[in-house]
Amino acid sequence: MANPEKTDRRAASSDSSRLSEDRFYDALSSVQRRRVLYHLLEEGETPIEELATVLTGWVATERGTMGTPADHTTHHLALHHIHLPLLAEAGLVAWDRESGAVTPESLEPLVRDIVRRSVEASRS
């Protein structure tokens, strides 16, 4: 019969290592966050204002519409309050809230490939 104390320690250890993986997968679960990473991988450091413009244009192109100032504001707020905090917490970007600069962290080649393939596939 299994020792319950050992099982509890293994579960706790497994949960802690999975936590960082969960953050990583959570960060990549959003098409908007993958697009942000894609842009950063292609262009390097980018101000949050420019990222909001890029996302606004991306969505407008998909819908066949024009992006509006309200759309830009919506994307900026989502970047500031949702997307960038999650990406930063997962260790995928560095975000300087003072200057607004967002920089991609050093990513494993496999992660870069997954981000690129995911975004490029959605363009087809």
Automatic annotation (TrEMBL):
It holds the Pfam family DUF7344. Residues 1-20 are annotated as: Disordered. SUPFAM superfamilies: Winged helix' DNA-binding domain. This is ArsR family transcriptional regulator. Coiled coil: none annotated. Residues 25-103 form the DUF7344 domain. It comes from Halapricum hydrolyticum.
